[in-house]
């Protein structure tokens, strides 16, 4: 897993969870977590309206 989610920036909108093709993102209480299914495709980072996700390829 090579994405970073900034918990302080995240607005908890859920957009990234819906767009992830691998089902790697999960809303946990008031933040988002990525699991090992992440393929670093970068879609979540593109969809995030506040730029809270950083993908390292
Ligand atoms: S980089 Fe792609 S696979 Fe990984 S969490 Fe984001 S949308 Fe899902
Ligand atoms: S798209 Fe961005 S703001 Fe929305 S839940 Fe995901 S990380 Fe948070």
From TrEMBL:
InterPro entries the record matches: 4Fe4S_Fe-S-bd, 4Fe4S_Fe_S_CS, Fe-S_Ferredoxin
Gene3D superfamilies named in the record: 3.30.70.20
GO MF terms held by the record: 4 iron, 4 sulfur cluster binding; metal ion binding; oxidoreductase activity
UniProt keyword list: 4Fe-4S, Electron transport, Iron, Iron-sulfur, Metal-binding, Repeat, Transport
Pfam families the record matches: Fer4
Annotated ranges, domain 4Fe-4S ferredoxin-type: 1-30, 32-57
The keyword Ribonucleoprotein is annotated on this UniProt entry: no
Protein name from the UniProt record: 4Fe-4S binding domain-containing protein
Protein species of origin: Methanohalophilus portucalensis FDF-1
Lineage per the UniProt record: Archaea, Methanobacteriati, Methanobacteriota, Stenosarchaea group, Methanomicrobia
């Amino acid at each position: 897993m090579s994405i970073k989610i900034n918990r302080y920036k995240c607005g908890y909108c859920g957009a990234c969870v819906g767009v992830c093709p691998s089902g790697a993102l999960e809303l946990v209480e008031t933040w988002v977590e990525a699991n090992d299914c992440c393929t670093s495709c970068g879609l979540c980072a593109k969809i995030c309206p506040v730029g809270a996700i950083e993908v390292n390829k």
